[in-house]
Structures are given as C-alpha cells and as structure tokens.
Amino acid sequence: MFGLHYRLERKAVGLVLAIIAVASIGGIVEIAPLFTIHQTVEDAPDMRVYTPLELAGRNIYVREGCYACHSQMIRTLRDEVERYGPYSLAVESKYDHPMLWGSKRTGPDLARVGGKYSDDWHVAHLNNPRAVMPESIMPAYAWLSRTALRTDDLGLQLKAMRSVGVPYTDEMVTNAASDAYGQAAPDSPQAEGVTKRYGAATNVRAFDGAPGTLTEMDALVSYLQILGRLTNAAHMPVAAAGR
Amino acid sequence: MIGQLTIGERQSALLMLLVLAAIGIAMAVAGRNDPLGAHGALVAVAALAGIFAVISGYYLPEPSGERFEHYYDEPTKAGIILAMGWAVFGLFVGDWVAWLFVYPDLTFDAGWSSFGRIRPVHTTAVIFGFGGNALIATSLYVLQRTSRARLPDQLSPWFVLLGYNLFCLLAVTGYMMGITQSKEYAEPEWYADIWLVIVWVVYFLIYLRTLARRREPHIYVANWYYMAFILVVAILHIVNNLAIPVSLGHAKSYSAFSGVQDAMTQWWYGHNAVAFFLTAGFLGMMYYYLPKRANRPLFSYRLSIISFWGITFLYMWAGSHHLHYTALPHWVQTLGMTFSVMLLVPSWASATNALLTLNGAWDKVRDDATLRFMMVAAVFYGLSTFEGSFMAIRSVNSLSHYTDWTIGHVHAGALGWVAMITFGAIYASVPWLWKREGMYSARLVEVHFWLAVAGTIIYVFAMWNSGIIQGLMWRTYNESGTLAYSFVDSLVAMRPYYIARAIGGLLFLIGAVFGCYNIWMTIRTAPRTAGEAVADSPDSVLAGTPALQPAE
Q1: Tell me, what's the ipTM?
Q2: How far B406 CA sits from the closest chain A CA (Å)?
C-alpha cells in the first residue's frame, strides 16, 4: 500500500483525481438519496406556500441574520416538545429556500412561534425587546417600523421561488405586490385577493397596527405569525402524518 | 509590484481589469434600485484603482531574466500583511459581537451594526480574511520550496491574492448592507460566489503548473493537504451555492435546495469547510513549518499517508452530525455520527505525527515562542478533534447542540489550532521572506504567545461552562414533572460567562495587535547582509526530500 502511494505522490494529476474520487463518496451516499427516497419528506396536502408579504418577511429574517440566534427545528426530545410544541417535520420546511433550521439558541426556537403572541407583542418586542422582556439580550429592530417595504419586485421574487420548485401560480405572481399590500390592510379592496389565492385561514391584519402603510415590520411580523402554521401535519397522529 | 510583471503581463492585467471594471459598471447600472448597485460600484472602483496602478507603473523597466534564479515571494509577503490586517479586523468585530451579549444596545439603532449582520462579518473576516490569506500566502511559499520551482508567472498569483480579497470585501460589506444567503460560512450571494470560483480555478492552475515544473520527484505532504484544500473547497462551494438569482439586477437569490435536502447540503458544506479550509489547509502549513522551525525531519511518512487519506475520505461523511434528532432521516444521522467517531484516528495520527516530530527539539519549544505556537496548535488540534468526535455522538449532541458548547468547541479549534499554527508560520516566515536575522522582538512574540493562550483558555472554559449549564437547564424537570426553568432563566445564568468570553477574546485581539506591530518593525529593520542562503536552505530536513542544492 505504501509502495503504491510512493508512486502516486509522484503524479500530480493522479493525486488530484484520487483526492476528488475519495472526497466525493461521502456526499454522494448521504445527499443523493434524500432527493429520491420518498419517505424523506412527508406528504402534507394542506401545506400552503408563503404569501408575498410572508416571503418578504422571511427575506428580512434572513437579511437581519435572525437565524444566528433562533433555530426553527424542534428536535425529537421530550423537553423540546414540551417547551416548543410538536417536533418539526421535514415537510414543514419543504418550501424553505434556503432552510432556516439554525444551529444556535441564544434565543428560543421559533419553529412554532406563529400565533403564540399577539401582533402588538411582536411589534413592541421588535422595537425594544427589553420593554417586554427586561432580561432579553436581543438587539432592537426599531428601524423596521420606519422602513417602507419594497414591493415592486415581489413578482420577480415569487417567480424565482417558482423556478426552484415552489408551486406559485401565474395569478399569484401577477398579483404579488397588491397581495402584499392587501394582507396588511384588511379593509382594502386588495385584501380579498389574498384569502382567495392563499386560503381563508391566511392572516389578513394590520400587523404593525397601521393599516395604510406597508412597512418591513408588517412583513416580518406576518412571517413570524405563520411559522409552524403552513400545514397541520405536525399536530396529527404519527401514522397519519407519515402517510 | 507592477515592476515585477513583464510587459505582456502588464497588458493582460490591464485587459482583465478593464473587463472587471465593465462588469462592475454593468452591475451598478442593473442593480441601481438594489444593494447590488453598491457592490457594482465597489467592483468598478477596485478595478479602476488597479488600472491606475498598472498604468502608473507601465513604463517601469521589465524584470530581468535573473528573476528565474529566485522564488517569487512578493505575493506571499503581501498575503501575510493582508492576513494580519484581516486578523485584527475580524478579532475586533468578534470581540464587539461578544460584548453585544452583555450590552445588547451597542448597536446604535442601525441595521448595519446589529448582531445578526456583524456576526457573519466576524466569521468571514477571521475564517476567509485571516485564514484564507494565510493559506494562500503560505501555500505559494511552500509550493515553491518543496517543488524547487518558481511560480509559473508573476501575474496569476496576484490575481488570486487580490481577487480573493475582493471576494472577502464583497462578503463583509454585503452583510452590513443586508446581502446574505444565510448559509452559514457561505453567506455571500451568487455574484460573489461566481467570482470566487474564477479565482479558485486560477489558484488551482498555479498549483498544477508549478508542480509540473518541479525539480523534486515527489510531491511533499504539505502539498497534498494544500491541494485537497483547494480541490474540495471548490466542490463544496459550487454545490452548496447552487441558487437562482431573483434577476440580474438583484443581489438576492433563492437556494436550489429546500428544507431537509438544503439542511444536509449546508452541513455537508459547513462541516467540510471546517475540514478542508480550517483543517487540511492548516495541516499543510503545519507539515512544512513545524519540521522546518524545529529543524527535525517529520516523525513518520507512513503516518502522514494514513492521516491524509483518512481525513480526505472520512470528513465528507461527518456533516450530518449537525442535524441529530432533527427531521433529517435517522440513517443519515447515524452515518454522520459513525464517521465522526472514526475521524479521531486520522486526526490524532496527524497531531501525534506533529508532536513526535518535536522529539529531540523540546529545548527549542521551551526557548522559542514561534515553535511553541506550533506545538500548542498541534495540542489544541488533538483536543478539539477529540471534542468534535465526542460531540458528534448522538446522546452527547442532544445536550450540546444549540448551546454555547458548540461555540466553545469551534473557538478551541479556531483560536487554539488555526490561529496558533498561523501565527507560528507567520513568525517563522517573516524573517525568511524579508531576509532579516529574526523577528524585531522575540519578547513580543513571547507576550503574544501568552496572551493568545490565556485568551483561548478563558474563552473556551467560559463557553464550556455556559454551554453545559444551558443544555442542562433546558432539560431539567422539577418534582411535579414539568420543566424547571424558563428559557430566559437560562439566558440570565449565562451573563457571567458571556463577560468572561468577551475578556478572553479581548486578550486574543491584543496579542494579534502586538503581532502586527512586531511584524511591521521587523520589516522596517535593516536587512541582513551575510548568510542570505540560510532562509532558502534546502528542505532536506523534511522527510522524503533528498538533500540537493537549493534552487537559489
């Protein structure tokens, strides 16, 4: 074996090919089957896509690096399930490009934070975390309320998501900007289209408390309020969820 | 610098910079309503500065044919200075984010300075800015000595070094503007990723072209590691960053993968960025500088073969240990755990090989802080690979995951292993490169050494404590069978450790500042006149390399 190596290390190209071959095996064996084995991701017929406003909120979550301190993955451990809710299923992040499972909990897990607190609580908390939780060490995100949300490119954002496999319809793409406005302005004519396209259960509220203006705070809170609620699969008995 | 390029190379440089400027301007125009526009302007300004530099030096006399008598070390010198600059910047930002855990309002109510944006600035500045520049600089140095061949040309190493730093600059400024893919240790967006691929291909070609002209029959161990670093990082980078941009005028892109497949791909990348960037590359550094500085042959050639192929094969399976108890299928988690435990064998084989190489030179370890940096690095390498294998065991991971223990583990590796071996290699090579008798102040190297050791130990102990306490508090039940602590209880308990961690980081930063001063003063002292050949003495010291005359 060492004799063989003694010859191999005299050939630069041979060494290069050997390194590529040896290093490729692990990834191929572990990653490729995840795309082909059907049981990897459960079926959840009730799973819906993010609305344009929620997607914009998700992009703000990514932009601000929230994932560096908050996970979105409840592990299959008793204390986690009791603290945060039913453990996370693979299907729940199947429209997450990229996934935001996270790797660190400086703050608590957010996989099921949707609906746990009121919109007002989230807005107050994001404006100044220490106003609602004196011990918190989270940064304040007060400028989100002062910043208007960019909506002119939401159609393009949905289109890009569609090209990586998320089933947005043409209608959703065309109406993306107006749906974003409507979701945060419940009494506006645009609001009706949101529930028509994304389901009656969609949150249509003035998330930041001001229905007329669409801010980044609206988007982020709408995203936080949908976390863990795109499908009900995790709340069903194991046998039903696995089918 | 321009004076070292031939006329043909100056023309190629101008052409490339013009293309780069055009791309920058196109990006600035297409992305005028997007953060991409600012990056386009940055690229264009960088390219124009380069064009100005080339033109102002264009009519300098061409380098003489005498240059082929020498190795080409100017890019290495620049790389070392850049690495130290990034080190101070990255460590400063790191300590700043550490203090944010204690004083969360140190963010000036602005987006660019909030924790989530500057934390990747810290990780990118230290891993890619400091580590990457040190790897490029030392690899070019080692490649020439162990091959006894000069780099193939003068332009391509500068392209790699400066192009790579442009990538780092795009990354770091991007995060502050909110441009990120959120993929850990692969945050830069699609255009920066494409640019890095181009830089990386040229880097690899420098390696192959120099090796093709080598005057040593065998490729030395250090080069196996440097090649594995270049090759595998390329594979990881390309696969992990597959994404569709929103448009050519948007910085934002959406990852090609989602959910569980994306999680596996990201940690396959993430763990092997540790393996091939932070381990293989720096092992290459260790396999050259440690025997050279100790003036002892490598302890075992066979052990280095076993550890090299062990690391190259086994590491690529280990990424899934970051996803224990998650929605990732169980069989992948189990494979990741199994291979992580097996990884201890080649890891400890490398650490043992390094430490046993010091046999017969322990008196030097006592007297020479530079060699002691390398020795301590090998010890921390052994410790953190053991800890890594241990933490990859599923039941241990159930406690350690999501806690500060992971942060402590990473820093045991990053401060104790990566930074220490780099400081050792830099202190060894600065006098060689600038032809000085030695460092300006051996005492300051000693001071740096102890600040670095103290900072690392304080940091790691603080995070071990906080991580294990966190993990235990989260899973503690009271007598009535309910969870004993709220999340915020665990947060309050962390405060003393967060303060200690920030102090440890500060000590490490101060050490690096002393290092910069020492290097600067060394460069400013008069060059040595006699004994010039010592710096490029033949590498007969290294095992497997026959004693031949040096190339210069």
Answers
A1: 0.95
A2: 8
